[in-house]
């Protein structure tokens, strides 16, 4: 095993650690790890990301369900609309995107590069939100009742994002559950992990019809990520959520900037 591969597998622990601590965010690390550390093609990297994040989040969600931290009604309201947009985007939209995606005279934008630019943009927006805003301890849903209609629409939007870039969307789901479902932050994090698990697996199922997978690589990486989520859930008892959120936001911003500079250097 080369030093670069060792770093990549060690990063799998970080993916699980972040999901366990923050209820999401690990998914926006997996695609850069697969692309830049292991040299995996971008579209395949998004497929691998969905499986790793789905399996890791599923293990974490079982623990949260056992502790009765998950709001199953809110989960269903948010996740069911996501199923449709995720599966359709992975099954039809992503494969149907032309390659190159855009061409004008001598300028050519391959589909893989476009996905990475979009991914980096989402990372920057997520990082900005994590750095600048403090999450409230209690939701702000009107009169304390969840806004199920708004949650369903947001589920559709997050599903499209998940399907396109292979990210679970936890950095978007947690604030929505706090503000629109009125969940306390610890329940929002726990519920988010279950939603991410279901969304990711639905997206992955949309890919297996047209993708050859390297299970000898994928399963060990996923196993290390699962170890990381147990460590993250344990450390979550001692780490202040706001401090964690801002620190991770700066890290995500640095990774996004690296991705953009890396892609621009190849033009």
From TrEMBL:
Its main location: membrane. Keywords: Cell membrane, Membrane, Transmembrane, Transmembrane helix. Pfam families: TauE. One of its GO terms (cellular component) is plasma membrane. It comes from the Bacteria. It is a multi-pass membrane protein. It is found in: Cell membrane; Membrane. The chain crosses the membrane at residues 12-37, 43-62, 74-94, 114-131, 151-179, 185-205, 217-236, 248-265. Signal peptide: none annotated. PANTHER family: MEMBRANE TRANSPORTER PROTEIN MJ0441-RELATED, MEMBRANE TRANSPORTER PROTEIN YJNA-RELATED. Belongs to the 4-toluene sulfonate uptake permease (TSUP) (TC 2.A.102) family. This is Probable membrane transporter protein. The lineage of its organism: Bacteria, Pseudomonadati, Bacteroidota, Cytophagia, Cytophagales.
């Amino acid at each position: 095993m080369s030093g670069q591969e060792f770093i990549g597998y060690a990063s799998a622990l970080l993916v699980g650690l972040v999901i366990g601590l923050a209820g999401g965010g690990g998914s926006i690390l997996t695609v850069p790890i697969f692309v830049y550390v292991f040299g995996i093609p971008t579209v395949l990297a998004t497929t691998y990301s969905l499986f790793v994040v789905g399996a890791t989040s599923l293990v974490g969600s079982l623990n949260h369900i056992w502790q009765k931290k998950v709001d199953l009604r809110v989960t269903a309201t948010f996740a069911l609309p996501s199923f449709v947009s995720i599966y359709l985007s992975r099954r039809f939209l992503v494969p149907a995107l032309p390659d190159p995606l855009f061409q004008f005279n001598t300028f050519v934008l391959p589909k893989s590069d476009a996905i990475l630019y979009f991914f980096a943009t989402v990372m920057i927006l997520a990082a900005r939100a994590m750095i600048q805003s403090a999450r409230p301890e209690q939701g702000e849903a009107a009169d304390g009742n969840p806004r199920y209609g708004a949650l369903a629409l947001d589920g559709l939007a997050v599903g499209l994002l998940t399907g396109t870039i292979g990210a679970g969307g936890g950095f978007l789901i947690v604030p929505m559950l706090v503000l629109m479902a009125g969940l306390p932050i610890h329940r929002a994090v726990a519920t988010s992990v279950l939603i991410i698990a279901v969304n990711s697996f639905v997206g992955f199922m949309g890919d297996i019809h047209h993708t050859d997978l390297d299970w000898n690589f994928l399963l060990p990486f996923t196993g290390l990520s699962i170890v990381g989520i147990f460590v993250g859930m344990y450390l979550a008892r001692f780490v202040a959520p706001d401090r964690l959120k801002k620190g991770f936001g700066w890290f995500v911003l640095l990774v996004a900037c690296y991705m953009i500079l890396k892609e621009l250097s190849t033009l």
